[in-house]
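hiii so um. not sure if this is the right channel but i have a protein structure encoded as tokens and i wanna go backwards to a sequence. like what aa goes where. can anyone help
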């Protein structure tokens, strides 16, 4: 045999690889790999503001707790009545930063930011974007004020 694979053998082996790979991936709990759990009870309301229910996110019960609101945003409890909403995209090259203790660190090039998103170590020159939050203790919700999009 010349060492070449037939088209039929290629298709059979490829299909087998897809089935085995799919089975392995489906058995993994991918959410468990995330540092901050994904938020539950997130709803959008008029104006595209994001509302997070405390009752659905037990990690926010304690000061310092955090939850991923989206692929690009994290909500952190700073005090009993204060919350931070930070966009987790590095100002340097757009990598997704990680929350480590009381700072954000970019795994791509080492930029570091305070918990409030202020750059403390480059190469990033700009801060992480933060969003205004409003805590409603009666409803048990945090509203993240999203900027209004304007057509220009």
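sure thing!! here u go:
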């Amino acid at each position: 045999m010349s060492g070449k694979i037939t088209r039929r053998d290629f298709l059979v082996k490829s299909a087998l690889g897809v089935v085995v790979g799919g089975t392995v991936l489906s058995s993994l709990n991918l959410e468990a790999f995330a540092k901050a759990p994904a938020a539950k009870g997130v709803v959008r309301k008029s104006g595209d503001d994001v509302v997070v229910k405390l009752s659905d996110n037990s990690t926010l019960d304690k000061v310092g707790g955090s939850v991923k609101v989206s692929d690009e945003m994290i909500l952190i409890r700073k005090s009993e009545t204060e919350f931070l909403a930070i966009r987790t995209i590095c100002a340097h090259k757009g990598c997704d930063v990680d929350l480590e203790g009381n700072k954000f660190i970019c795994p791509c090039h080492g930029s570091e930011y305070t918990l409030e998103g202020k750059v403390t170590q480059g190469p990033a020159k700009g801060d992480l974007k933060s969003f205004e939050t409003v805590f409603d203790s009666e409803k048990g919700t945090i509203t993240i004020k999203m900027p209004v999009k304007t057509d220009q």
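oh and Residues 7-27 form the longest helix (21 residues).
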